[in-house]
Amino acid sequence: MSRVGKNPVAVPNGVTINLTEAVFSAKGKLGELSLNLTSDVAVTQEDNQIWVKPKNDSKRARALWGTTRANIANLVAGVSEGFTRKLEITGVGYRAQVQGNKLVLQLGFSHDVEMDIPSGISVVAEKPTLIAISGADKQLVGQFAANARGWRGPEPYKGKGVRYEGEYILRKEGKKK
């Protein structure tokens, strides 16, 4: 039994839900997002709550029960509040800036890394060493942050590189004489 799937998803004020047999969509102040539903789970709306139940007792239905509920909760939270990921850049000469619709990272390579910012998210370089990525779609925000971090992940000796805000880097001891 899913512990996550048992709980309902609360719909805050200002969020409009449109529920059909195959598509769940939510519209709020930050935009509109939709989710394709599988035939293994049943989604119902009662008052300001959304309930997800498995249609049968198959392994697939039980697996998708909690996943569907979590995805619906992320949609509702995204269109009402949004999601933000912050990246810290550590290292001499490492910095970031936003130029138009591109994020430009200087990470010690011979060239600047230019990343196209997808529609639906906004990127702000609060400082040259701090980037804030925000948007309504949790998956899109997280994937863009992971792609930016992937260019130069934090290394364990000096801690240089791009890391998530608050991420702890396990440091290693350097060479000994």
From TrEMBL:
Keywords: Ribonucleoprotein, Ribosomal protein, RNA-binding, rRNA-binding. This protein binds to the 23S rRNA, and is important in its secondary structure. It is located near the subunit interface in the base of the L7/L12 stalk, and near the tRNA binding site of the peptidyltransferase center. Part of the 50S ribosomal subunit. GO terms for molecular function: rRNA binding; structural constituent of ribosome. It comes from the Bacteria. Residues 11-82, 91-164 form the Large ribosomal subunit protein uL6 alpha-beta domain. NCBIfam families: L6_bact. InterPro entries: Ribosomal_uL6-like, Ribosomal_uL6-like_a/b-dom_sf, Ribosomal_uL6_a/b-dom, Ribosomal_uL6_bac-type, Ribosomal_uL6_CS. This is Large ribosomal subunit protein uL6. It holds the Pfam family Ribosomal_L6. Belongs to the universal ribosomal protein uL6 family. The lineage of its organism: Bacteria, Pseudomonadati, Pseudomonadota, Alphaproteobacteria, Rhodospirillales. It comes from Thalassospira mesophila. GO terms for biological process: cytoplasmic translation. The gene is rplF. GO terms for cellular component: cytosolic large ribosomal subunit.
